Amino acid sequence: MGLKIFTVDAFTDKPFSGNPAGVCMLSEEREELWMQSVAREMNLSETAFLKKRDNGYILRWFTPKVEVDLCGHATLASAHVLFEKGYLKREEQARFHTRSGLLTATNKENWIELDFPKQSVTPTTPPVGLNESLGVKPRFVGKNALYHYVEVDSEETVRGLKPNFVQLRSVQVNGVAVTSRATTSGFDFVSRFFAPAFGIDEDPVTGSSHCGLGPYWEERLRKSELLAYQASARGGIIRVRVESERVFLSGKAITILQGESCT
Description:
This protein is α+β, with helices and mostly antiparallel strands. It is built from six helices and 18 strands. It folds into two domains: 4-116 and 249-260, Diaminopimelate Epimerase, Chain A, domain 1; 122-243, Diaminopimelate Epimerase, Chain A, domain 1 (Roll).
Protein backbone atom coordinates (compact mmCIF):
# COMPACT_ATOMS: atom_id res chain seq x y z
CA MET A 1 0.00 0.00 0.00
CA GLY A 2 1.32 3.46 -0.91
CA LEU A 3 1.77 6.42 1.39
CA LYS A 4 -1.25 8.64 1.88
CA ILE A 5 -0.82 12.13 0.43
CA PHE A 6 -3.23 15.07 0.50
CA THR A 7 -3.66 18.49 -1.05
CA VAL A 8 -5.13 20.96 1.43
CA ASP A 9 -6.10 24.59 0.86
CA ALA A 10 -4.95 26.46 3.99
CA PHE A 11 -6.06 29.76 5.49
CA THR A 12 -9.45 29.47 3.82
CA ASP A 13 -12.72 27.56 4.12
CA LYS A 14 -13.46 27.77 0.39
CA PRO A 15 -12.02 25.37 -2.21
CA PHE A 16 -9.44 26.76 -4.64
CA SER A 17 -8.52 29.73 -2.48
CA GLY A 18 -5.99 30.21 0.32
CA ASN A 19 -2.66 28.44 -0.10
CA PRO A 20 -2.52 24.80 -1.28
CA ALA A 21 -0.07 22.53 0.51
CA GLY A 22 0.85 18.89 0.09
CA VAL A 23 0.77 16.67 3.19
CA CYS A 24 2.50 13.27 2.99
CA MET A 25 2.10 10.77 5.84
CA LEU A 26 5.29 8.72 6.23
CA SER A 27 5.28 5.25 7.77
CA GLU A 28 9.09 5.16 7.91
CA GLU A 29 12.04 7.47 7.45
CA ARG A 30 12.66 8.62 3.88
CA GLU A 31 15.74 10.15 2.31
CA GLU A 32 15.86 13.89 1.83
CA LEU A 33 16.32 13.47 -1.94
CA TRP A 34 13.10 11.42 -2.11
CA MET A 35 11.14 14.07 -0.18
CA GLN A 36 12.53 16.80 -2.42
CA SER A 37 11.48 14.79 -5.49
CA VAL A 38 7.94 14.38 -4.13
CA ALA A 39 7.74 18.13 -3.45
CA ARG A 40 8.90 18.82 -6.99
CA GLU A 41 6.25 16.41 -8.32
CA MET A 42 3.52 18.03 -6.22
CA ASN A 43 4.69 21.44 -7.52
CA LEU A 44 3.06 23.37 -4.67
CA SER A 45 4.72 26.16 -2.72
CA GLU A 46 5.35 23.65 0.11
CA THR A 47 4.80 19.96 0.77
CA ALA A 48 4.88 18.75 4.38
CA PHE A 49 6.16 15.33 5.46
CA LEU A 50 4.90 13.85 8.73
CA LYS A 51 6.39 10.91 10.62
CA LYS A 52 4.88 9.70 13.93
CA ARG A 53 7.15 9.72 16.94
CA ASP A 54 6.68 9.63 20.69
CA ASN A 55 4.75 12.70 21.84
CA GLY A 56 4.02 14.07 18.38
CA TYR A 57 5.20 14.10 14.78
CA ILE A 58 8.41 14.94 13.00
CA LEU A 59 7.49 17.63 10.46
CA ARG A 60 9.60 18.80 7.51
CA TRP A 61 8.70 21.24 4.72
CA PHE A 62 9.99 21.31 1.14
CA THR A 63 9.36 23.75 -1.70
CA PRO A 64 9.89 22.34 -5.21
CA LYS A 65 13.44 23.64 -4.88
CA VAL A 66 14.66 23.49 -1.23
CA GLU A 67 13.86 22.45 2.33
CA VAL A 68 12.75 25.39 4.48
CA ASP A 69 13.04 26.10 8.21
CA LEU A 70 9.48 27.27 8.83
CA CYS A 71 6.18 27.12 6.96
CA GLY A 72 2.84 28.22 8.37
CA HIS A 73 0.32 27.11 5.78
CA ALA A 74 1.75 23.59 5.42
CA THR A 75 1.72 23.26 9.22
CA LEU A 76 -1.92 24.31 9.28
CA ALA A 77 -2.62 21.82 6.46
CA SER A 78 -0.81 19.07 8.41
CA ALA A 79 -2.84 19.74 11.57
CA HIS A 80 -6.03 19.78 9.51
CA VAL A 81 -5.22 16.32 8.06
CA LEU A 82 -4.39 14.90 11.51
CA PHE A 83 -7.70 16.10 12.96
CA GLU A 84 -9.93 15.46 9.93
CA LYS A 85 -8.60 11.98 9.10
CA GLY A 86 -8.62 10.70 12.67
CA TYR A 87 -4.89 10.56 13.37
CA LEU A 88 -5.68 12.80 16.37
CA LYS A 89 -8.89 13.53 18.25
CA ARG A 90 -10.12 17.09 17.82
CA GLU A 91 -9.64 17.85 21.51
CA GLU A 92 -5.99 16.75 21.34
CA GLN A 93 -3.06 19.04 20.63
CA ALA A 94 -0.95 18.39 17.53
CA ARG A 95 2.76 18.54 18.39
CA PHE A 96 5.32 19.01 15.63
CA HIS A 97 9.08 18.57 16.04
CA THR A 98 10.69 20.78 13.40
CA ARG A 99 13.85 22.65 12.42
CA SER A 100 12.26 25.65 14.18
CA GLY A 101 11.68 23.76 17.43
CA LEU A 102 8.43 22.43 18.86
CA LEU A 103 5.32 23.82 17.18
CA THR A 104 1.78 23.03 18.28
CA ALA A 105 -1.73 23.25 16.80
CA THR A 106 -5.02 23.34 18.68
CA ASN A 107 -8.67 23.39 17.57
CA LYS A 108 -10.44 26.55 18.73
CA GLU A 109 -14.02 27.26 17.62
CA ASN A 110 -13.63 25.85 14.07
CA TRP A 111 -10.24 27.51 13.63
CA ILE A 112 -6.87 25.82 14.06
CA GLU A 113 -4.44 27.89 16.14
CA LEU A 114 -0.70 27.44 15.53
CA ASP A 115 1.88 28.34 18.19
CA PHE A 116 4.93 29.76 16.36
CA PRO A 117 8.10 31.62 17.40
CA LYS A 118 8.03 35.42 17.37
CA GLN A 119 10.37 36.86 14.72
CA SER A 120 10.67 40.59 15.40
CA VAL A 121 11.52 42.89 12.49
CA THR A 122 14.38 45.39 12.79
CA PRO A 123 15.17 48.28 10.40
CA THR A 124 17.76 47.63 7.70
CA THR A 125 19.19 49.18 4.57
CA PRO A 126 17.33 47.87 1.50
CA PRO A 127 19.42 45.28 -0.37
CA VAL A 128 20.65 46.49 -3.74
CA GLY A 129 17.86 46.27 -6.30
CA LEU A 130 15.03 45.46 -3.87
CA ASN A 131 13.01 48.65 -4.23
CA GLU A 132 13.51 48.72 -7.98
CA SER A 133 12.45 45.09 -8.46
CA LEU A 134 9.29 45.69 -6.41
CA GLY A 135 8.60 49.04 -8.06
CA VAL A 136 7.88 50.82 -4.75
CA LYS A 137 9.06 53.68 -2.56
CA PRO A 138 9.04 52.11 0.93
CA ARG A 139 8.01 53.78 4.15
CA PHE A 140 10.08 51.17 5.99
CA VAL A 141 12.43 48.31 5.18
CA GLY A 142 13.36 45.74 7.83
CA LYS A 143 14.31 42.13 8.29
CA ASN A 144 14.33 39.24 10.72
CA ALA A 145 16.01 35.83 10.69
CA LEU A 146 13.70 34.65 7.92
CA TYR A 147 12.75 37.44 5.52
CA HIS A 148 12.81 41.10 4.56
CA TYR A 149 9.78 43.33 5.16
CA VAL A 150 8.68 46.42 3.24
CA GLU A 151 5.91 48.76 4.38
CA VAL A 152 4.29 50.86 1.65
CA ASP A 153 1.82 53.73 1.72
CA SER A 154 -1.50 51.95 1.13
CA GLU A 155 -3.45 48.76 0.63
CA GLU A 156 -3.99 49.88 -2.95
CA THR A 157 -0.23 49.85 -3.52
CA VAL A 158 0.08 46.36 -2.02
CA ARG A 159 -2.70 44.98 -4.19
CA GLY A 160 -1.34 46.64 -7.32
CA LEU A 161 2.25 45.38 -7.05
CA LYS A 162 3.74 43.90 -10.21
CA PRO A 163 7.29 42.89 -9.24
CA ASN A 164 10.01 42.29 -11.77
CA PHE A 165 10.71 38.68 -10.78
CA VAL A 166 13.73 38.33 -13.05
CA GLN A 167 15.33 41.24 -11.23
CA LEU A 168 14.08 40.12 -7.79
CA ARG A 169 15.78 36.73 -8.20
CA SER A 170 19.14 38.54 -8.19
CA VAL A 171 18.40 40.47 -4.96
CA GLN A 172 19.99 39.06 -1.80
CA VAL A 173 16.79 38.12 0.06
CA ASN A 174 15.21 34.76 0.93
CA GLY A 175 11.76 36.27 0.70
CA VAL A 176 10.09 39.65 1.05
CA ALA A 177 6.74 40.59 2.58
CA VAL A 178 5.22 43.85 1.35
CA THR A 179 2.61 45.24 3.73
CA SER A 180 0.43 48.20 4.65
CA ARG A 181 -2.30 49.12 7.04
CA ALA A 182 -5.65 47.84 5.75
CA THR A 183 -8.43 50.02 4.44
CA THR A 184 -10.74 47.05 3.77
CA SER A 185 -13.28 46.95 6.61
CA GLY A 186 -12.58 44.40 9.34
CA PHE A 187 -8.88 43.90 8.63
CA ASP A 188 -5.91 45.46 10.42
CA PHE A 189 -3.22 44.96 7.80
CA VAL A 190 -2.65 43.41 4.38
CA SER A 191 0.41 41.87 2.77
CA ARG A 192 1.80 39.97 -0.18
CA PHE A 193 4.85 37.69 -0.15
CA PHE A 194 7.47 36.99 -2.82
CA ALA A 195 10.22 34.34 -2.64
CA PRO A 196 11.89 33.67 -6.01
CA ALA A 197 14.97 32.37 -4.15
CA PHE A 198 12.83 29.45 -2.94
CA GLY A 199 11.36 28.85 -6.41
CA ILE A 200 8.13 30.71 -5.50
CA ASP A 201 7.47 34.00 -7.29
CA GLU A 202 4.42 34.78 -5.14
CA ASP A 203 3.20 32.67 -2.24
CA PRO A 204 -0.62 32.86 -1.94
CA VAL A 205 -0.80 32.92 1.90
CA THR A 206 2.31 32.81 4.10
CA GLY A 207 2.04 31.89 7.77
CA SER A 208 5.75 32.25 8.53
CA SER A 209 5.87 35.87 7.31
CA HIS A 210 3.22 36.72 9.91
CA CYS A 211 5.66 35.72 12.66
CA GLY A 212 7.26 39.07 11.79
CA LEU A 213 4.20 40.96 10.52
CA GLY A 214 2.35 40.29 13.78
CA PRO A 215 4.91 41.97 16.08
CA TYR A 216 5.48 44.73 13.49
CA TRP A 217 1.81 45.76 13.38
CA GLU A 218 1.26 45.09 17.08
CA GLU A 219 3.76 47.86 17.81
CA ARG A 220 2.27 50.30 15.31
CA LEU A 221 -1.42 49.65 15.92
CA ARG A 222 -1.00 49.04 19.67
CA LYS A 223 -3.11 45.89 19.68
CA SER A 224 -2.00 42.29 20.20
CA GLU A 225 -4.88 40.60 18.34
CA LEU A 226 -5.05 41.38 14.65
CA LEU A 227 -6.90 40.18 11.57
CA ALA A 228 -4.72 39.97 8.46
CA TYR A 229 -5.48 39.49 4.78
CA GLN A 230 -2.89 38.28 2.30
CA ALA A 231 -3.90 39.92 -0.95
CA SER A 232 -2.69 37.40 -3.53
CA ALA A 233 -4.93 36.28 -6.38
CA ARG A 234 -6.17 33.38 -4.22
CA GLY A 235 -6.28 35.39 -0.98
CA GLY A 236 -6.33 34.21 2.62
CA ILE A 237 -7.32 35.26 6.13
CA ILE A 238 -5.08 34.88 9.18
CA ARG A 239 -5.90 35.69 12.79
CA VAL A 240 -2.73 36.85 14.54
CA ARG A 241 -2.17 37.04 18.31
CA VAL A 242 1.15 38.21 19.74
CA GLU A 243 2.05 37.03 23.22
CA SER A 244 5.51 37.42 24.80
CA GLU A 245 7.95 35.52 22.54
CA ARG A 246 5.29 33.61 20.61
CA VAL A 247 2.95 34.42 17.73
CA PHE A 248 -0.32 32.51 17.46
CA LEU A 249 -1.66 32.15 13.92
CA SER A 250 -5.21 30.88 13.37
CA GLY A 251 -6.78 29.75 10.15
CA LYS A 252 -9.17 27.34 8.50
CA ALA A 253 -8.42 24.66 5.91
CA ILE A 254 -10.17 22.31 3.50
CA THR A 255 -9.00 19.05 1.89
CA ILE A 256 -9.09 19.17 -1.91
CA LEU A 257 -7.46 15.89 -2.97
CA GLN A 258 -6.48 12.58 -1.37
CA GLY A 259 -4.36 9.85 -2.91
CA GLU A 260 -1.47 7.46 -2.48
CA SER A 261 2.16 7.66 -3.47
CA CYS A 262 3.22 4.83 -5.80
CA THR A 263 6.88 4.79 -4.63
